[in-house]
């Protein structure tokens, strides 16, 4: 799951969550140190602000104004924490593109003027752009692309491909071996299905070969 929202953290702290939601969030907190720290910060904030909020609420009740300002102060802190969480998630995502072992799948956009732009995990690419994939140091590999629309296809390992007009997330995986007994397309379909159709959630195909992967978002030009 993605990082816990501020609202969900708030509701967790005041014990307002239904059990399944609570369990889901606890599982995420167990795995995500950033969200654990955010939760800790929320607890500290809540403790520090409780007397202020109570005082402000009392004043507001006296003057019929709402205790808005203090709530905003909490939201600003929470917003910063959430932004940090996003950065952390981004980093974790890019770490997974380097595969156990040394191989990495690199993607570059080939521009009309001959220049090349490296694609970073999660980058936005556009229909009609030419992209070249390569695995430095690997001589034999298979490239398979999985997209958010459920399409699974092979990409050529030589030359470049032109992005079609499909929209959404696309993951490309390099399988670093040449074994005719491994059905890469079938493995990719199964992995996409197991990830609920979301190629961002596919980390590996699980075939008995090293893999390297990168994903990006595809948009209309
Ligand atoms: Zn998190």
Q: What would the CATH topology of the largest domain be?
A: Immunoglobulin-like
Give the second-level CATH assignment, the architecture of the largest domain: Sandwich
Number of domains: 2
> How many strands?
9
Q: Biggest sheet: strands, sense, closure?
A: 5 strands, mixed
Net shape? elongated
Helix/strand order: HHHHEEEEEEEEHE
C-alpha end-to-end distance: 30 Å
Instruction: Work out the helix count.
Output: 5
Helix/strand structural class: alpha+beta
Amount of helix? 40-55%
Strand order of the largest sheet: 3-9-8-5-6
Low-confidence stretches: 66-73, 89-101
What is the CATH C-level name of the largest domain?
A: Mainly Beta
Question: What is the overall pLDDT average?
Answer: 81
Classify the oligomer.
Answer: single chain
**Strand residues, percent:** 15-25%
Ligands, ions, cofactors: zinc ion
How is the secondary structure organized here?
Layout: H1 6-13, H2 19-31, H3 33-63, H4 68-97, E1 106-110, E2 116-118, E3 124-126, E4 130-134, E5 142-147, E6 152-155, E7 161-162, E8 168-175, H5 184-194, E9 211-219
Parallel strand pairs: 3-9
Antiparallel strand pairs: 1-2, 1-4, 4-7, 5-6, 5-8, 8-9
The structure holds zinc ion.
């Amino acid at each position: 799951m993605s990082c816990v929202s501020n609202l969900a953290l708030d509701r967790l702290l005041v014990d307002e969550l239904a059990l399944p939601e609570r369990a889901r969030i606890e599982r995420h907190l167990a795995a995500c140190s950033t969200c654990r720290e955010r939760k800790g910060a929320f607890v500290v904030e809540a403790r520090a602000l409780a007397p202020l909020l109570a005082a402000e609420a009392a004043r507001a009740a006296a003057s019929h104004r709402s205790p808005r300002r203090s709530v905003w102060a909490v939201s600003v802190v929470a917003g910063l924490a959430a932004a940090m969480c996003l950065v952390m998630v981004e980093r974790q995502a890019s770490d997974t593109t380097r595969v156990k072992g040394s191989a990495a799948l690199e993607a570059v956009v080939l521009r009309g003027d001959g220049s090349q732009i490296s694609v970073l995990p999660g980058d936005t690419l556009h229909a009609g752009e030419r992209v070249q994939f390569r695995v430095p140091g690997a001589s034999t590999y298979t490239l398979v692309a999985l997209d958010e629309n459920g399409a699974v296809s092979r990409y050529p390992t030589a030359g470049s491909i032109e992005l079609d007009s499909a929209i959404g997330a696309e993951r490309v995986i390099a399988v670093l071996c040449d074994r005719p007994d491994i059905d890469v397309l079938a493995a990719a379909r199964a992995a996409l299905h197991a990830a609920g159709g979301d190629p961002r959630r596919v980390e590996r195909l699980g075939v008995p070969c090293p893999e390297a992967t990168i994903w990006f978002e595809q948009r209309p030009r």
